[in-house]
Design a protein that fits this description.
Helix content: 40-55%
Distance between the termini: 34 Å
Shape: globular
Bound molecules: NADP nicotinamide-adenine-dinucleotide phosphate
Number of helices: 10
Order of helices and strands: EHEHEHEHHHEHEHEEEEHEH
Strand order of the largest sheet: 1-11-8-7-5-6
C-alpha cells in the first residue's frame, strides 16, 4: 500500500496562520517582531532564499529588514553590521544567509550574533543549550522535521529513529531534538558501515545527506515514517533541472507508512519555523509570554 504523504506545504501554511494570529496578538501589546536578513553577494540561490524568507516574514505581519552587502564586503565590515543589529532594540532576529564569500569566516560571524537574536539557532550557545536540553533557539529545519514526524506520531517516545547525516545545521540538531522527545536515536554518516541495514532499523528515518535519491526503497523499514530533508537539483526533461530529495521517493513510498515529498515537505516547514523563532525571540526580548503555538 502506498504511504501517506506528509503534506509539508499545508502543515506549514497552517502553522504560519497560527503564527500570524500570535503576531497580531503581540502587536496589540506594541511589539512588531522584526528580523534582519543579511545577504552578502549575489549568489542566485541565496538571493531567492532571502526573497522567499522576507516575503513570508511580511505575510506573517512581521517586519523584514533586508541588508544586502556587496560580495567584496570584508569580515570586519560584516561584524560591524552584526554588532549594530545586536544593539538595535527594534531588531529581534538576525539571519545571515549562508554560504558567505570566502574572505569571511562564517563561524566567526555566527558566533558574533547575540544568541537571543540567533533565529537560525546556529550560535554555539544555542547549539550547546540544545545538547544540554536547555531552552534556547533551535535550528529551523530540524524543528520542522520533528513537527512533521509528530503529525504522524504525536509521541515519539521509545521510537527507533535513524538520522542519516551529522551536519551542524541538520543532522546533529535533529538527532538531539529526537533524543529530547525520548526516541532511541542512531546517527549515520559517510563512514557508517552497512548503511542500508542501519536505515532499515528506523521506525523514523530522517535523511539529510545531500545525495540525490541515495536511500532506496529496500533501505526503508516497512511502515516507517520517512522525512526527506534533501534538496538536490538533477537534470530533468527538456534540459530543465528538477529537484529531488535524498530518498528515492517512487520506491520508498511503496514501503513506508508515511513520507515527505520533495519539494513540498521539509522545505516549507523550515521557513515557518524561522517565523516561529522570530516571534519567540521578540516575545522573550519584550518580556511577553512564550507564544502559545
Ligand atoms: P552537509 O553539511 O553536506 O552534510 C551531509 C551529511 O551527509 C554529512 O554528515 C555526511 O557525512 C553525510 N553523507 C554524505 N554522503 C554520505 C553517504 N554516502 N552515506 C552516508 N552519509 C553521507 O549537508 P546538510 O547541510 O546537512 O544538508 C543535507 C541536505 O539537506 C542537502 O541536500 C541540503 O540541500 C538539504 N537541506 C534542506 C533544507 C530544507 O529546508 N529542506 C535545509 C538545510 C539543508 P560526513 O559527516 O561523514 O561527511
Amino acid at each position: 500500500m502506498a504511504a501517506t504523504i506528509i503534506d509539508g506545504k499545508s502543515i506549514a501554511a497552517e502553522l504560519r496562520g497560527r503564527i500570524a494570529r500570535e503576531v497580531a496578538r503581540v502587536a496589540g501589546r506594541g511589539v512588531v517582531p522584526a528580523i534582519a536578513v543579511v545577504l552578502v553577494g549575489e549568489d542566485p540561490a541565496s538571493s531567492v532564499y532571502v526573497r522567499t524568507k522576507s516575503k513570508a516574514v511580511a505575510e506573517a505581519g512581521m517586519r523584514a529588514i533586508d541588508r544586502t552587502l556587496p560580495a567584496t564586503t570584508s569580515e570586519a565590515d560584516l561584524l560591524k553590521l552584526i554588532a549594530d543589529l545586536n544593539a538595535d532594540p527594534q531588531v529581534n532576529g538576525i539571519l545571515v544567509q549562508l554560504p558567505l564569500p570566502k574572505q569571511i569566516d562564517s563561524q566567526r560571524v555566527i558566533s558574533a550574533i547575540d544568541p537571543a537574536k540567533d533565529v537560525d539557532g546556529f550560535h554555539p550557545i544555542n547549539a550547546g543549550s540544545l545538547a544540554r536540553g536547555l531552552p534556547g533557539l533551535v535550528p529551523c529545519t530540524p524543528m520542522g522535521c520533528v513537527m512533521l514526524a509528530k503529525t504522524v506520531h504525536p509521541s515519539l517516545t521509545g521510537m527507533e529513529a535513524v538520522v542519516v547525516g551529522r551536519s551542524n545545521i541538520v543532522g546533529k540538531p535533529v538527532a538531539q531534538l529526537l533524543l529530547g522527545q525520548n526516541a532511541t536515536v542512531t546517527i549515520a554518516h559517510s563512514k557508517t558501515r552497512a548503511l542500508p541495514e542501519v536505515c532499515r532499523r528506523g521506525d523514523l528515518l530522517i535523511a539529510a545527506i545531500g545525495r540525490p535519491e541515495m536511500i532506496r526503497g529496500d533501505w526503508v523499514k516497512p511502515g516507517a515514517t520517512v522525512i526527506d530533508v534533501g534538496i538536490n537539483r538533477v537534470p530533468g526533461d527538456g534540459g530543465k533541472g528538477r529537484i529531488v530529495g535524498d530518498v528515492a521517493y517512487g520506491e520508498a513510498e511503496q514501503v513506508a507508512g508515511a513520507i515527505t515529498p520533495v519539494p513540498g515537505g521539509v522545505g516549507p516547514m523550515t521557513i515557518a519555523c524561522l517565523l516561529l523563532n522570530t516571534l519567540r525571540a521578540a516575545c522573550a526580548q519584550n518580556g511577553l509570554a512564550e507564544p502559545a503555538i
